[in-house]
Amino acid sequence: MRKDSIMQVINAYCQTHTLTDLKQGVQGISVYEIAEKLHLLRNNVNVDVNKLFQEGKVIKICGNKMYRFYSQEHFMRVTHKTLSAQTTCSNLNELLGDLHEVRDYEDPFTALIGYNASLKNAILSAKAGILYPGGALHTMLLGESGVGKSLFAEKIFTFGKKEGIFTADSQFVVFNCADYANNAELLLSQLFGSVKGAYTGADATKEGLLKRADGGMLFLDEVHRLPPEGQEMLFYFIDKKKYRMLGEANSEHEAKVTLVLATTEDPDNHLLTTFLRRIPMVIKIPSLKEKSFNERKQMILYLFSLEASAIGCPIVIDKDTMATLLLYQPKGNIGQLKNDIKLAIARSYLEMRDQQNKEITNEIRIHNYALSYQVKDGMSDLDIEQRREIEKVLVQDTYIVEPYDVIMVEEDDTALFAPPQLDVTKSDIQTSFEEYVEKIARSLEHDQLPSFIIDTEIREIMAFIHEWVLHNMNVLIGRSQSAALAFYLKNIRENRLDAFSHEEDLKDYDVATMEDARSLIRAIEQHFHLRIPAQELHTLACILNTFTTNTLQSCGISMFVVAHGTSLASNIADVVNELLSIHYLIPMDMPLTKNVNQIMDELILKIKQEPKGNEILLFVDMGSLTSLEETLRQKTSYHVVVIPTINTLLLLDAARKAVFMQYTLSNILQDVMRMNQKLDATLEHHIHNHIAQSSEKIIYTICYSGDGTAHYLEKYLKDLLEQEGIFSIDILALSNDSLIKIRSMIEETSKNKEVLCMIGNVDPGLHEYPFISMEDILMSDGVQRLFEIIGDIDVLHKSDVVKSFERDVFVDVAFESIDKYLMYLNSKKLYPLLMKFIEGVEKELQKTLNNRTLTRLIVHMSCMIERLLFDEYHFEQNEETMVQVKEHSKLYTIVTEQLEAIRSSFHITINQEECYYLMQIILDDTDENAHVSI
Q1: 364-366: strand order across its sheet
Q2: Residue 485 CB: number of other CB atoms within 10 A?
Q3: Which end is more exposed in the chain, N or C (fewer Cβ atoms within 10 Å of the end residue's Cβ)?
Q4: Considering 286, 311, 334, which residue would you say is the last residue of a domain?
Q5: Torsion angle of the four alpha carbons 38, 42, 43, 47, in this order, in degrees rounded to the nearest 10
Q6: 247 in the same domain as 322
Q7: What are phi and psi of 131, to 5 degrees?
Q8: For the whole model, what pTM was predicted?
């Protein structure tokens, strides 16, 4: 039945989710996704899935724009909670409730990539600090920008909550000292609170962050921006657990707060020594370049998974791209890496969209050419050791990241053993494993095992086991054996095996086998965050014992590289063999002084020296050898295949798969074909780019020095072009007081480029290029002219895109201008508060204010805040104001409510008359839209 098929899809989606997955946020599966998988009409799926909901088989999740569904049976099995039929929720977290019995053994730090590697010492220190017998220790986090100090601090607090150090209602309060670095009084007022009259504008007593964080944790980011007097007040609090609010002389307040401080600077150079002495725990968070390649790979795939989920499309990353990203060392660490990955996805999408004659796919493929030049810089410093390490880490040719990380595994196909009986013996286990290996081997033949069975995790475990057994036991195991063992370990993690052990059976193995089993367990637990029960030691020893008959021997394929010249083939073979630490690839040099017959005789002699039954794979560069495949077969009686190329990358990959992954000749040939196609496509793309760069397009944004117009025009234009998928146009901001210098700068930077136009508030007078003034952008048809010049007429039909661009420019012009009127305040600090007010008013009125009204509001409110803050004068109330307020009571309520954030931020009182003036500005706007009721 159709309904049963739908339920199977929902169960397949849910079956791999653990309790941790549910807590971290599982969205459920939508009707659209089910219809796509089963190739059904959405209306039909919608009818059936609602029947399942009525029957109590699925949970309906109503929190998103569309309904999503989740298996009720799976949810109850994982959480041990009982749900009623027809259960609905806005998200699954609502249904979790208090699961203390589960949380007791869940460590919040395990959610961090590298928790048992690069972050291990940091986490141990953090735990020690929280669990310190005399009370949690105050902590300093050191690290570069973007390494995750804020997230780490939050995990410290979560850990403290789980351990009972903090109560359930305690708060994790965050404050960035840089936000008020230029105003010490406001900064200290935020931290300690202030009494009425403590400073100009302090019209009421206000509690500080220490009060809010009482009983919990206060995280102070960029603490090096805290002024010396603030540091002194803070270390008084650390010593006495007491503090005074700003403006208090005698009274003191008590609070129990654990401080976590973070800085990107050297604390010895930026913080008082007396303050530093009171922070006993100092923890350094490692940067991205200090993490292992394996951690970086996890981070990269995690960031790609975020983007795949955001765009709802699978992303396929090739091995070369992964290698380049592994070597990338961004100054902005994880934050910058995330932006570079977004840019690569955007470029790849544009490339895919522009391929008119190629098959359209429902996935985005990321190749090396999609990465920016700064990302690819690291490849130039690649040494042999790094190459070897990358080869170990990157075990796949491509990495597929789905929008939802769902691993569909049929239970019958991956269960290694049935639930064991009490009388299971060593020979039973070995027999079961060997039979299972044969089953896996049949599935792996010709690489036909579905990707949803051999997922990314299984492949990584397979590669790790293969490498570990080879290095530590000098045993070469096949893909089927490593896959079988990987499934066995995965089943342990999913609690799908019943552990058992007989102490007497352990005596049947020698000390070396038992030690190997213990060592492998430790290595797997550390590398894959997988806990293996002690009872499984017996089973694992049995499995390892089946491997010992597989000595490191020939893979059944002899691989030659044959090239013209005295040493070309030898040099290539040396490179491949050294990178893989093997002696496998056989060189055959062809000096130009020898004729073809001599070369053929030597080659036949070398082939005949290879073990009988081996298949022969020849990589040749050119000439008559490329057509002598059949002749070589007849004269040697070997199965000979000739590949007419000697690309080093192809040889390296083929040798690796033959020796270490035990690929068949057919598998290797298929991979050679795929990789060669990819290399050809990359070469074609590079040549295309080189040709295109000779006529690169550029737009200049221009203003006088100190104006700032050019730079925000540059920013908004780049954002708009990227939004429209246009990445081939460069935007360059020029700012100078001299028109002659501006012209000179244009001449210098426009060589070999096509200048599309110039935009700004000053015309440099270069009549060969179109000029669009700021007035045209804001008041006339400037935006239309710009996109006509670019050649993207479609955007002009998107009125919301054009209006958004014009509005952004208008707002920045307004804020740029108010700096001329303000004496004390900085427009950058006012920006978020004023825009929050404007957007709140627009939302309540359900309309967008015009650009003229925006400018009036921004200028008036900026001056009003400074005037009230420094108590210069207030507007007096009068009868006309009262009449207008009553007449437009709805608008008055909206204005006063939206002003609350400004009142509390600046501690000012905004009376009815001030609100009236703001209402008048808004009413002037709405006069043009009489249908708007306020």
Answers
A1: 364-366, 315-318, 398-401
A2: 28
A3: N
A4: 286
A5: 60
A6: no
A7: -90, 10
A8: 0.46
